[in-house]
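Need the bound structure for zinc ion, inputs here:
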Amino acid sequence: MHTDLVAALDIGGTKIAGALVDREGRILARAQRPTPAREDGDTVMAAVGAVIGDLAASPLWERAGAVGIGSAGPVDASAGTVSPVNVPGWRDYPLVAQVRDAAGGLPVALIGDGVAITAAEHWQGAARGHDNALCMVVSTGVGGGLVLGGRLHPGPTGNAGHIGHISVDLDGDPCPCGARGCVERIASGPNIARRALENGWRPGPDGDTSAAAVAAAARAGDPVAVASFERAARALAAGIAATATLVEIDIAVIGGGVGKAGEVLFTPLRKALTEFATLSFVRRLAVVPARTGTDAGLVGAAAAALMGRTDAAVAGV
Ligand SMILES: [Zn+2]
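Answer from helper R.:
Posting the output first, comments after.
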């Protein structure tokens, strides 16, 4: 049988999604389970196994030649293990070996979720055709990944491009990661909302204090909401400019819930980039919204599996 498909798994703190994907990135079969994130590691793995079992029940399964996993991080692709912050039952958990067993011995490629979304954006989204790109997810946290020289650059452990935890404020607030003034500590959705509330913004009658509600207030002209987005935009711009200066990217793609805020984010972000990205070789840097949607994690995991069949460095196993 010709193995022209791959199986993809997108493992996060709330759901485990699976799919069978063809070489054009089309999803031909799907499965999904909630993540029992507060349970022990074996229980979480049982949910992953159930997703694989659902996919294996498809008549298309016999055409799958590899499995790609995009997992909440940190991951260690070189060891085949994951330690997702939001899944405490998994610490240095041997996910690659477990999935290989559950999938009948198929080869398994593991990447972090930020790298997976980068793979999806490079394959099918806003970074398509760009050989040097930074792709970011700005939502509850801030993650990212890099395309360098036309290829996904996951790094030795699969975490390269994790822009959320580079510091852009040396004396800034402590970050849960242990550092200070990280991009995530300033620009994530919860931190945008927290700062707006601390500075006197109040939600409407529905009590919605999400970053999306702050974005709506900013669009309506609320100065505190505008200022909170401007601060997030400056943090993102500083991180993007640093990345561009280090490795010469020509585009930064921003996805995730905060990335959907539109011009209340992108207008101050582009303005701040002109302040931070000043050298000749980074001045033409473009910053654009992501184009892939809710399937980005699955599509990116599939891309990793397809690359892993010809590139052991990406396979990480
Ligand atoms: Zn941090």
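Comments: The chain has two domains: 5-116+295-315, 128-289. The pocket of zinc ion is lined by residues 165, 175, 177, 179, 182, 184 (CB under 6 Å).
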